[in-house]
Each structure stands twice: as structure tokens, then as C-alpha cells.
Amino acid sequence: MEKSHTIILVQKTASKASRTFLDYETVSGAVDGICNMFERDLKERFAHQRELTYDVQQLFQWIDHLHDLSALVFDEKQTAYLPFTKAWVKEKVLKQLKKQAGLR
């Protein structure tokens, strides 16, 4: 399922106007997209700082504070999109960041 088309549904605030979606060819692409969205938000909030650093806990807090975040991942066997929650997204983020850092 890691190579499956993935749609990320995001609602940043309680306002329905903050709803959006992003689509990616893979789950890992979607995870990268979520991390990039977090980094863009950091850059906007701390525009006066030249260099920003963060840890996975801050990323997870950001995810938790989103009004809604979910993923729809295409399953070829069922020929349908399967829904996943914030907890699943955080699990995939952690797994991918560990892999990028050379950890298991």
C-alpha cells in the first residue's frame, strides 16, 4: 500500500473555508507533503528567524492542533480508497523520519 495514490484531507481551523486536499502518488510523498506544510507554517509564524529547527514532538503537536487531518489511500485489491486517521498519519511520519535519519 506504500506505493498507492494518497489523498490528504486537511482542515486547519474550525472554519470550513480552511478545508483543502492534497494528492500524491505514494504514501511517502503524502508524508513529505504534510512535513512541508508544517515547515511552511513555521516559516510564516517565525518569518523573522533565519534558521528554524523542530523536533518530531512539535510536528505531532501541530498535527494534533489541526481541526481535521485524514488520509485516503487507494487499495488496488478493493479498488477503493481506505480512510486513515491522524494517528495513522503520525505513525507514517515517524516511520519515514526514522528511515531518513538511518534509524529503524
Automatic annotation (TrEMBL):
Domain of life: Eukaryota
Signal peptide (residue range): none
Alphabetical list of SUPFAM superfamilies matching this protein: ERH-like
Pfam families from the UniProt entry: ER (PF01133)
InterPro entries named among the record's database cross-references: EHR_sf, ERH
UniProt KW keywords: Cell cycle
Keyword Repeat: no
Similarity comment text for this entry: Belongs to the E(R) family.
Cited function: May have a role in the cell cycle.
Record's protein name: Enhancer of rudimentary homolog
Protein source organism: Coccomyxa viridis
